[in-house]
Structure formats: structure tokens, C-alpha cells
Design brief:
Layout: E1 2-6, H1 11-22, E2 26-31, H2 38-43, E3 45-48, E4 60-65, H3 76-93, E5 97-103, H4 131-146, E6 151-157, E7 160-161, H5 168-173, E8 176-177, E9 180-184, E10 190-191, E11 194-195, H6 196-208, E12 213-219, E13 225-226, H7 227-238, E14 244-248, H8 250-258, H9 266-273, H10 281-287, H11 295-308, H12 312-316
Parallel strand pairs: 1-2, 1-4, 2-3, 4-5, 5-6, 6-12, 7-11, 9-14
Antiparallel strand pairs: 8-9, 10-13
Helix pairs in contact: 3-4, 7-11, 8-9
């Protein structure tokens, strides 16, 4: 198949380029960068495009729209153009594609004590959503109102992770200093997480599906994880020395969030103290989804990748990661 992937120079988009090229597909990658990584150009044809303005795309079997501005702290006005207008522009640019797959986010939901079903989006208190979550929900509304082809899939993953991750792992490692992990509260909540390969498998199922109309699915690993257990496993895999733990009380976290100290926000505190598990029954029932990899399966690969890019200090310093370096891909 001929597949277009927007946002291909990012962590997730890049992972999808590598995955589908390895599966034998022809991939057309798009991104804002004028000088994309050489390794990307070896795998895919590259189209430089800014989704914030109208642009054109060639014919293809599938368009996977993953390009977005992802920042939980950014105001909605900063997110609206890239995430909402950008989706509208991409939808129009992909008119010559048979299927459209939109990579949304579980940020369209609020936490809940029970597994979260797709129809809950938009039916909770939307004012409590992060600005990012609101922008993704608005982008979904654009698709619902303006999509004109027969097949469209909206996928809502939770907490992407895997080799090349520039979001989840760096956030965790920021809490480790001087051989001590400052644990925010108990972190004993239940969470869903989504490995890149499991997301790619869900996309493959969408590609093969004959279902028509706009279909919306949650997507994550089959396993429900206890957050602190995965964090401890990750720290053990990435640090050769023993790392001690010290708990930061929830009350102190709320105070820090109120005064915007240490990067803590009310949304972050909520995410560390409330369950966030996605109900996968719909995608399992309609597409036959089952995940192929677990968090434990990827720990060795994550360790090798972090070592290859310069170790945990590199991630903690938030340096620009070499996502396409041949030394670890």
C-alpha cells in the first residue's frame, strides 16, 4: 500500500515510518522540517508541509494524520491552529486518499474509576480537560462534520512509549536526582499505556477493515498497569546503581501546582492520583484487536536506546534527541 504519514519527523510519526516501511509499504512522509534526517530520506519520500496552512498531498491508499502540537501547558489559542485547523487542512489535502486515520488522544477524557469507553468523550466536564485535550476533541468534531470519504478511523491512544519516546520517559527521569527518585504520592493508580508497535497493529487492522463511516476506538496495550510498578521497572532498567525512593506528599504536590513550582500543574497531579484505564472492548469486538507487546517486553530495548543516545542525563537535560540515529535503529 501507499501510505502518507504526517508528522513523520516526530517520535511517533518516525516510529510509524520505520514500522510500515519494514512491512513492505511505500511511505510518503510529511513534516515542517526543511532538512529532514538523512535516515528518513533513505526510507521514504519526504514532502515538506506546514499543516497550519492549506497544502496538497498526492494520491495514496491511506493517510495517517499524526502531526500535532502536543503540550499540556500550552493555552488553547496556541493549540487551535496546528491541531484543529491543521486537521481540517490535512483532511482536505487527503481527498485523494481512500482511508483517513486520525491519531487523537485519551486526553479527550477525564480520569474515571472505571474503564473509559469511547462515548464518554464530550460527555464529561469539558472545561476540566487540558487545553490539548480540548484541541483534540475539536479536531475530532472537524472530522465528524467535514469527512466525505467512506472510511475514517479515529484512534485514541493513552501514553505512547517505546524506543524514541520523548515524552513519558523524560518526565519520569526528571524525578530522579542524586540517586534518589522523588515519588509524587503513592503512584499506585491503574493506567493504560500504548506501545508504538501496538498502535501500528491497530492501524493495520484499520487498513484491512471494510467497515464504513467514521469509527472511533480506544487503543492501548491489553494489560492494565500499576503506574508505580512500571516506573520502578524503568528506573531499574536504566540506572546501573540502586536508586532510593522518597515520597512527595499529595498535599505538597497540590501546593506546588497552585504556585506553579517544579513543573507541577493541577492536571499533572490529577494524572498521578486518578485511574486512567481505557476500555478496549470496542476495537477488540469490531476489529479483532489484541496487543503484541507489553511494557516488560520493551525494557531491554529502552535501556539499549537510552545508552546509545548518551544515557539518562541526555534525556534529563531535554536535549534534542537524535531520533533517527543509525546507532540505535
Amino acid at each position: 500500500m501507499r501510505i502518507i504519514i504526517t508528522g513523520a519527523t516526530g517520535a511517533f510519526g518516525g516510529a510509524m515510518v520505520r514500522y510500515f516501511v519494514a512491512k513492505g509499504h511505500e511511505v510518503i512522509a510529511t513534516g515542517r522540517d526543511n532538512n529532514p534526517p538523512k535516515e528518513l530520506l533513505k526510507l521514504a519520500k519526504y514532502i515538506q508541509a506546514d499543516i497550519c496552512t492549506p497544502y496538497e498531498l498526492p494520491e495514496a491508499d491511506i493517510c495517517i494524520h499524526s502531526a500535532a502540537y502536543s503540550d499540556d501547558k500550552a493555552p488553547l489559542k496556541s493549540l487551535y491552529t496546528p491541531n484543529v485547523v491543521g486537521t481540517r487542512n490535512t483532511l482536505k489535502a487527503a481527498q485523494n486518499c481512500d482511508k483517513f486515520i486520525y491519531i487523537s488522544s485519551s486526553s479527550v477524557y477525564l480520569p474515571d474509576s472505571l474503564p473509559i469507553q469511547e462515548e464518554m468523550a464530550g460527555n464529561q466536564n469539558n472545561k476540566l480537560l487540558s487545553s490539548y485535550g480540548q484541541s483534540k476533541l475539536l479536531a475530532e468534531e472537524v472530522i465528524e462534520n467535514e469527512f466525505q470519504k467512506e472510511q475514517c478511523f479515529i484512534l485514541r491512544p493513552r501514553a505512547f512509549y517505546g524506543v524514541g519516546d520523548t515524552q513519558i520517559i523524560p518526565r519520569i527521569l526528571k524525578l530522579v536526582k542524586n540517586n534518589q527518585f522523588s515519588r509524587p504520592g503513592k503512584m499506585d493508580i491503574k493506567v493504560s499505556m500504548t506501545h508504538y508497535d501496538n498502535m501500528a497493529k491497530a492501524i493495520e487492522l484499520c487498513m484491512a477493515s471494510s467497515l464504513t463511516g467514521i469509527r472511533t476506538y480506544n487503543i492501548a496495550d491489553d494489560d492494565e498497569y500499576i503506574l508505580i510498578e512500571n516506573v520502578r521497572k524503568l528506573i531499574k532498567a536504566l540506572y546501573p546503581q540502586k536508586i532510593s525512593e522518597k515520597e512527595i506528599s499529595i498535599l505538597l504536590l497540590k501546593v506546588l501546582a497552585f504556585f506553579k513550582i517544579g513543573g507541577f500543574t493541577p492536571l499533572l497531579v490529577r494524572g498521578l492520583t486518578q485511574n486512567m484505564v481505557l476500555d478496549l472492548s470496542k476495537i477488540k469486538r469490531e476489529l479483532g484487536y489484541t496487543s503484541a507487546i507489553t511494557f516488560d517486553d520493551t525494557l531491554k530495548d529502552l535501556s539499549q536506546w537510552v545508552e546509545a543516545i548518551g544515557g539518562v542525563k541526555h534525556l534529563q537535560a531535554k536535549e534534542k534527541l537524535r531520533l533517527w540515529g543509525k546507532e540505535f535503529y
